Amino acid sequence: MRPILMKGHERPLTFLRCNRDGDLLFSCAKDHTPTVWYADNGDRLGTYRGHNGAVWTCDVSRDSARLITGSADQTAKLWEVSTGKELFSFRFDAPARSVEFAIGDALAVVTTDNFMDHVPTVQVKHIAEDIDDQTEESALVITGIKGRINRAVWGPLNRTIITAGEDATIRIWDSETGQLLRESDKESGHQKTISSLSKSLDWSHFITGSLDKSAKLWDTRTLTLIKTYVTERPVNAVDISPTHDTVVLGGGQDAMNVTMTDRRAGKFEAKFYHKILQEEIGGVKGHFGPINALAFNPDGRSFSSGGEDGYVRLHHFDSDYFSIKM
Amino acid sequence: MQQNQQHTERWGDLLDDDGGDFDLSVLLPPPVVVGPDANGMKKVIEYHIDEEGNKVKVTTTTRVRMVRRSRRAIERRSWPKFGDAAKEAAGSRLTMVSTEEIFFDRTRASGNNADGAGPSSSADSLAKGNDKPGGGLLMVCRTCGKKGDHWTSKCPYKDLAPQQGESSADKPPSTDGSGGAAGKGGSGAYVPVFKRLGGDTSGADVMRRRNDENSVRVSNLSEDARDPDLAELFGQFGQLSRVYVAIDRVTGESRGFGFVNFVHREDAERAINKLNGYGYDNLILHVEWATPRPN
């Protein structure tokens, strides 16, 4: 395949997200400016100017009208997707890290870091349909997690919130009361920081990637560990294919290996595993630095990866990918 | 003799250096269209003159892909650019198609399925080489089994004993899986030389593997002598790291001589003493040190 290289960011990429229809790709990076691209040919559509710090994650509403971003400048901002206009800014006492719209886009979950004396929090905000009615009020605030929370996402039917972070434990919280419902098992769960989390198309299962060089697949309702995928590099980004039984892992490099590993250019690869058999089926090389973000397109026919090198690489699969038989 | 009436202008007139705006486009080749090929790629090659009078060749490669889009997505396509994209120069190179072809590199099951490992590692790596994805050249190394990196002759793990030449009594032959995995600790990690399997772990023995000084030259071989014969004959004296019989490419027969490399020098010495003058297949063997006699 001939990947399309998009160099719109000057600093490392942090997150990639496709809209529901699969024609737009949103990229977040440490350079303060989230960008939106057309997902078929990689043309840049626009940028969202306004943040003063690294942008960690973003999410787009189902109708692709609104974008929410979480940034290290201690705000989460709401934007109008089509024009780049900043609609609203939620202010916090600490860097905002993970953001996600709920089903229906009337709520959003935002996490804040453990910054100075502040404990990390998970906050639920109402999103008003008319932007003039928008307030900063939180519907729910969850504290009680010790380490940094890297990802917080909504569970099925918005009933639960799932968090994962530095303490390597996945927790499921009730989204109305904030009560802790479940916690992942310490023995079988991850052993190091969970860096990334991604849900399947129907939200019935999700995958987490961790710096312990593995990724694990979990059931969303019961938090049972279903599968484990082992790799040799710490995992920074994960995603599940919406159409095929494939998961993809993207990783970095242990500090220890920097002098010993073969550092030929373009050798960082996104590894594909068979979701059910747990076996590695292939890899796609090309990045000049660790991969920090991965996103499958909703049609399952392409995927994009964002790296430490500031590049977004958009790959449209060749027919040989679809004919892989295990 | 034909008078060419159509040309009222002569090229000599055209090239007048009077600074006027003259038309050099008659000198340019016509545009070429290389029609859509099997992958749907179409190339259009055009020429034009730029402002400085240089001839410019522009090759445009396009592929048409039909995509189903929702109505809203089509609307979004016509949105005006905003933010930093609004003032984007027309020729900006933010989005580029990669110039190199990237493959979805299939992972071959390496040391994992050792029980199903029938063929030797060289046949396996040939098989790997043959059914590869895409259409590019895949370099397969027989010694470490790693694909895409280097050919066998350039293998960084050259001193691993090649699988087919080994015929030692004390060391059981490694399975093809571990032979491949022995070269690397994992398919990406660097394994230092002294840690690799297939070799001794003491430093001195590793050095002795560079055993050109343990090389024994065998001459007056019969014409149907081959590597396995020498291996069998010399193997009784100790571990061999390499056997070679010079074969005439044209006739396929042995050229009458060959070389045997021992791991241990003492074994080589004993072999020379015992086999020099030994009758082997109707000829008397001549066995000596390959290099001038090392002390």
From TrEMBL, chain A:
It holds the Pfam family EIF3I. Its main location: cytoplasm. GO terms for cellular component: eukaryotic 43S preinitiation complex; eukaryotic 48S preinitiation complex; eukaryotic translation initiation factor 3 complex, eIF3m. The keyword Protein biosynthesis applies. The keyword Repeat applies. GO terms for molecular function: RNA binding; translation initiation factor activity. WD repeats lie at residues 6-47, 48-89, 142-183, 187-228, 284-314. CDD domains: WD40. GO terms for biological process: formation of cytoplasmic translation initiation complex. PROSITE patterns: WD_REPEATS_1, WD_REPEATS_2, WD_REPEATS_REGION. InterPro entries: eIF3i, WD40/YVTN_repeat-like_dom_sf, WD40_PAC1, WD40_repeat_CS, WD40_repeat_dom_sf, WD40_rpt. Keywords: Cytoplasm, Initiation factor, Protein biosynthesis, Repeat, WD repeat. It is found in: Cytoplasm. It comes from the Eukaryota. SMART domains: WD40. Component of the eukaryotic translation initiation factor 3 (eIF-3) complex. Component of the eukaryotic translation initiation factor 3 (eIF-3) complex, which is involved in protein synthesis of a specialized repertoire of mRNAs and, together with other initiation factors, stimulates binding of mRNA and methionyl-tRNAi to the 40S ribosome. The eIF-3 complex specifically targets and initiates translation of a subset of mRNAs involved in cell proliferation. Belongs to the WD repeat STRAP family. This is Eukaryotic translation initiation factor 3 subunit I.
TrEMBL record, chain B:
Residues 177-187 have a biased composition (Gly residues). Residues 206-215 have a biased composition (Basic and acidic residues). Keywords: Cytoplasm, Initiation factor, Protein biosynthesis, RNA-binding. Residues 109-127 have a biased composition (Low complexity). One of its GO terms (molecular function) is RNA binding. Residues 214-292 form the RRM domain. Residues 109-132, 157-187, 201-221 are annotated as: Disordered. Component of the eukaryotic translation initiation factor 3 (eIF-3) complex. This is Eukaryotic translation initiation factor 3 subunit G.
